[in-house]
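FORM 12-B: Structure-to-Sequence Request
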């Protein structure tokens, strides 16, 4: 049977996550994401994805210490990072630097320790490269801050605000894992050849770089900025766009036919931060008024915000340039990729789909 793009084809069994587009559900290891994220850290959910269960306090402390211990780049990797052309995009820099980590210590089978190492590396690569291109002094990683707070600290060169840190951590937790997407599939295909963890993650990063997969929510950002600058009221600006037949960026999702559970979890978190940042406040207002305008002008057409909608507001609030959007997505998704690589290795069969020849015969 031929299915273009393997759509609808089941390629693997997994215990890591389930995406139910019809019900609007996302499960990490059997836990509904809306319940899982309450009061938990990036490190806790990473532990769940890697080990299959939530950590005890002692296990969580041990994982945090391992992540901190791995906050360094080998000299050869740092030299590569500084010598790559300035015009090279950040995703290509991450891909190249991660590939350079492929030392003889990485082999078959992959390990959780390797997953921790690569997860610790990505924020360093992003922050070092960003500050170098800005002409700023590189900020050494903290040995006290959590994974997400340290990422912001190294980028900004100062202690991040609690509101910004909380919002970004929630976003990164919600994008850790999302089923058999293109980059995750790529990671598993590479792992199925019994290549090492570094090759699998490098392959996944190359796939994430494509605008059809890891593209930044720039359209949502443009929408918020347009509304912010408009002389019309927020509601009137939205109504005019709908009447003109323009798409409201950040609404609708290819998989979710109802509410995107990640968007709802992110919104719930941001409701606790009302008044902390005007961009977060604006996003909440725009969602409410957009749904109201759609009900008025296009009755019966149910459109809901996707995770990119609130992600754009968070990125704007913490002053991230658009070229940091997909790299930040990568800094979280490396956890999900590595979890899938580990799972693939436990019951491995090399991926070898068939193709149908449609060329001529001479």
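FORM 12-B RESPONSE
SEQUENCE OUT:
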């Amino acid at each position: 049977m031929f299915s273009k793009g393997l759509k609808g084809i089941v390629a693997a069994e997994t215990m890591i996550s389930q995406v139910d587009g019809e019900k609007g559900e996302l499960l990490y290891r059997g836990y509904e994401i809306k319940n899982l994220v309450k009061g938990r850290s990036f490190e806790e959910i990473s532990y769940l994805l890697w080990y299959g269960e939530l950590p005890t306090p002692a296990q969580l402390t041990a994982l945090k210490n391992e992540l901190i211990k791995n906050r360094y780049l080998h000299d050869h990797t740092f030299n590569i990072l500084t010598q790559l052309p300035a015009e090279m995009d950040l995703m290509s820099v991450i891909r190249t630097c991660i590939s350079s980590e492929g030392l003889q210590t990485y082999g078959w089978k992959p390990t959780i320790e390797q997953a921790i190492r690569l997860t610790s590396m990505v924020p360093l690569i992003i922050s070092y490269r960003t500050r170098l291109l800005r002409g700023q002094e590189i900020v050494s990683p903290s040995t006290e801050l959590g994974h997400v707070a340290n990422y912001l600290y190294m980028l900004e060169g100062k202690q991040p605000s609690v509101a910004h840190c909380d919002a970004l951590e929630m976003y990164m937790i919600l994008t850790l894992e999302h089923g058999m997407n293109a980059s995750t599939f790529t990671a598993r295909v590479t792992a199925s050849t019994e290549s090492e963890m570094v090759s699998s993650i490098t392959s996944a990063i190359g796939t994430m770089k494509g605008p059809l997969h890891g593209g930044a929510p720039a359209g949502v950002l443009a929408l918020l900025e347009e509304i912010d600058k408009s002389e019309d009221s927020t509601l009137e600006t939205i109504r005019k766009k709908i009447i003109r037949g323009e798409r409201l960026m950040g609404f609708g999702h290819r998989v979710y036919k109802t509410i995107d559970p990640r968007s709802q979890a992110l919104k719930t978190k941001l409701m606790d931060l009302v008044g902390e940042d005007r961009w977060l406040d604006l996003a909440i207002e725009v969602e409410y008024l957009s749904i109201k305008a759609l009900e008025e002008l296009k009755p019966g057409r149910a459109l809901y915000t996707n995770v990119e909608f609130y992600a754009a507001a968070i990125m704007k609030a913490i002053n991230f340039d658009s070229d940091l959007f997909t790299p930040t997505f990568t800094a979280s998704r490396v956890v999900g990729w590595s979890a899938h690589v580990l799972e693939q290795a436990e019951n491995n069969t090399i991926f070898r789909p068939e193709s149908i020849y449609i060329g001529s015969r001479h």
